[in-house]
Amino acid sequence: MADFQTIQAGLDEIAVRKDLRVPMRDGVTLAADAYQGVEDKPRPALVALSPYGKELQALALTTPPQRRPSPMWDGCIEAGDIARVVKEDYVHVIGDLRGSGASEGEHIGNYNAGGVSLGQDAYDFIEWVAAQPWCDGNVGMIGISYFGSMQVLAAAERPPSLKAIFVSGGHYDFYETTYHGGVMWFMPRAAREGRGGDSGWAFTDGVKSRMLETYSPEEIKEKVAERLRDPDVAAWPNLVHVLNYPKNHEAWFDIVMNEVDGEWYEERNPVNLARNIDIPVWLQIDQGRGWTMDGTIELFDALKGPKKLDIGPYPPMQSRPFIEEHDKMFRWYEYWIKGVDNGIMDEPAVTVHVEGSREYVTGAQWPPKDVEHRSLYLRPRRGLSFEPELMGAEYAAPDGFYQAPLTVTDKVEILNWSTAPFTEPTEMIGQGAAHLFAEIDQPDTNFIMRMWDEAPNGKRQLITSAYLKASHRELDTERTTEGDPRHPHTRAVPVEPGKIEEYVLRVYPFAATFLPGHRLVVELSNAEPLADEHNALLPPDAFHLPVGRPVTHKIYRDAAHPSRLVLPFTTRGSAEKENR
């Protein structure tokens, strides 16, 4: 007799096996629920693993999908549409990671970097699922964001029963996920602790800080005191609280305490691990949050097996419960798991939605078209021009702004420069650079740049962004090329106040056509606006740590200091276009 319960989901019946115990090789057991059709037969399985709690994911059966800014939008309901998975004749297996939810064991640090590899646990979990009588031995994976990152960690371990993965909205290089250009991002706090529309981790006593497990109380006290000497950190109430009282903030505490890249982040970097993956991988990401596109493309380039890259349209936040991309996913798994030759591998490897023209461009790699990096120079009277400035600094006086800390003002000062209206469609696809010759009167600041497409009626859409903490200006000269700057972020070097420095910001990947009459507008600040037309689409914790000291900025753009954008203009190539 079947050991499942039958539940009603809409007009369909779904069978569920609750609270399965999945043994790991060290004796720890993980908790899981398995959903399937009521006919008791073997099926392929789609596995979803996270620390967010399997009961939370079950709300996908009863909660209508929500879009931002709905107050019911919960960023952690990411395991997929259970009813749809069952309808497509798969078993949907949702598990709690080690140390979270109903699972045993300890979760030490982010991605359990201080304990048992989450990839190792995923291997054991997948092979256990494949051996069950209700599974036919073929396994794929499902889920976005953290669930997506888990797919990469699992595939890198090469479990024999894992046939393919489909990753949407994943996060990969963990340092680049949490510090954009060296500037701390608050979203990981929300995802872990439950803030601003996220339920957070299913915390237990098994979730521990890797820092607190590694260092003595005396060493921790010294390291916390050093971290609080950063005026940006000391000015932000939540960070002061976390650093003084890390209990119940263990995962966020570890991020705050490690502000530069290095072994802490790199030992299990999914981008590095991707070189071990030889199964088919589909990577999907939407535009509008450039750092997620950047990491997805970097992972795509590192993969060795069959692969697809699918970059979708703005806006950036998928619904919760997550339901998007399922049609593509089931075509992928139909081919690789069910063996149906549906022609998907005859289609181009890379598909990119181009904002503005609303076209899809396809190709064999990123970018899918040939590009030429061309410079747009910052000019007097807030202009952007293909022609460099000829006047010297004595005539082309720098633009400037003074920013007081947000602890004393709620006004964010923003400089902007714009092109003349474009006279013909102008397409850009790729990543770029912003070269800023700047002088500040403090040892550090943030440079936050956002690039907009402004229509003749004044309506704007964000195209991409760039971030750089001034003390992280050092370039990785071996990896940096024209229009593709790289920063090691392994140390912070204070700026000499009053000295003009060249800061090279990485402009995150994007794809956009500026239509006739539209302008390209570039904004520069050292903090983000508290609310605008883009931020309204995001949870309130999608914010970066502002500068905690008053700073005067001078941006030079004269003949000796050619501040400029270096952007990827497409050229005639073999790429195809398709209107959709």
Automatic annotation (TrEMBL):
Keywords: Hydrolase. Residues 330-566 form the Xaa-Pro dipeptidyl-peptidase C-terminal domain. Pfam families: Peptidase_S15, PepX_C. InterPro entries: AB_hydrolase_fold, CocE/Ser_esterase, Galactose-bd-like_sf, Xaa-Pro-like_dom, Xaa-Pro_dipept_C, Xaa-Pro_dipeptidyl-ppase/CocE. It comes from the Bacteria. PANTHER family: COCE_NOND FAMILY, PUTATIVE (AFU_ORTHOLOGUE AFUA_7G00600)-RELATED, PEPTIDASE S9 PROLYL OLIGOPEPTIDASE. This is Xaa-Pro dipeptidyl-peptidase C-terminal domain-containing protein. It comes from Actinocorallia aurantiaca.
